[in-house]
Q: What sequence folds into this?
């Protein structure tokens, strides 16, 4: 491999990992660490080898909606080669591999890593805006339907923001530690670029916190609205039941096989019906005045 080569491993097999470890004499835990989806962001150095693990955002389809989450990305610096490893395809790697970004060179390892981290922080901002737009769309649907499906979608978005917040905090610790590493700050303009990465990451953290608070408050508000609407429906149904039970009481009383008032009158049926309607109307008026309808 030539100087400045970038090797990217995506869901590598055991044979590929063993080959890379043997070829460069890598610490056996470096490459496998990034393949653990629960691995936290960190930096390790050992015998001239450096491991950097950061979380990167990704999105995947989930029926008619999308789910946002994060996945670890491992960056290993060994000899004059850069090795990256992920469990699945990510936008941050695709952008560099397909040369969508200009002004980067894998021969300038330190600068390339900082550019990669800057793009990673920018992706968090981009995905956060998508999450915000998705939450606004769900809120508009929720205002019309007030169904559980929209609430479940908002819960998924809130879960995504939790993942983003946790990952951004871990990335921040890595970036702060990198400020004290001569390996990444000894090249010209590296310190300025690293500061830009830190600023971008902090901006993403602030946006994530704001969106998360807004979404949490909105979910609580809509949950209260749904509960209140249910109470209103139950109140109306209860009032209607009370009004409708009055004719039933009259018909039950005059349906008994005993002597009852008006039993000998040819207009008994009309009198009983009229009385039940009058009493039901009085009950309806009373409940209406009490705003039970």
A:
């Amino acid at each position: 491999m030539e100087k400045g080569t970038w090797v990217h491993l995506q869901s590598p097999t055991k044979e590929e990992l063993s080959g890379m470890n043997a070829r460069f004499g890598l610490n056996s835990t470096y490459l496998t660490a990034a393949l653990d989806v629960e691995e936290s962001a960190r930096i390790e150095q050992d015998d001239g080898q450096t491991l950097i693990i950061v979380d990167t955002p990704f999105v995947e389809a989930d029926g008619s909606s999308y789910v946002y989450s994060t996945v670890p990305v491992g960056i290993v610096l060994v000899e004059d080669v850069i090795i990256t490893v992920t469990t699945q395809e990510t936008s941050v790697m695709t952008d560099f591999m397909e040369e969508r970004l200009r002004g980067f060179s894998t021969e300038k390892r330190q600068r390339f890593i900082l550019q990669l981290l800057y793009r990673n922080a920018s992706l968090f901002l981009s995905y956060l805006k998508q999450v915000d737009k998705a939450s606004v769309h769900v809120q508009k649907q929720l205002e019309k339907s007030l169904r559980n499906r929209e609430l479940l979608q908002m819960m998924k978005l809130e879960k995504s923001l939790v993942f983003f917040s946790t990952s951004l905090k871990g990335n921040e610790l890595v970036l702060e530690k990198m400020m004290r590493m001569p390996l990444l700050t000894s090249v010209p303009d590296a310190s300025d670029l690293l500061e830009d990465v830190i600023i971008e990451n902090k901006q993403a953290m602030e946006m994530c916190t704001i969106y998360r608070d807004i979404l949490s408050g909105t979910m609580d508000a809509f949950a209260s609205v749904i509960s209140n609407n249910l109470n209103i429906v139950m109140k109306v149904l209860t009032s209607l039941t009370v009004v409708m039970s009055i004719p039933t009481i009259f018909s039950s009383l005059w349906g008994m096989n005993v002597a009852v008032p008006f039993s000998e009158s040819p207009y008994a049926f009309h009198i009983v019906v009229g009385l039940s309607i009058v009493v039901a109307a009085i009950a309806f008026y009373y409940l209406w005045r009490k705003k039970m309808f």
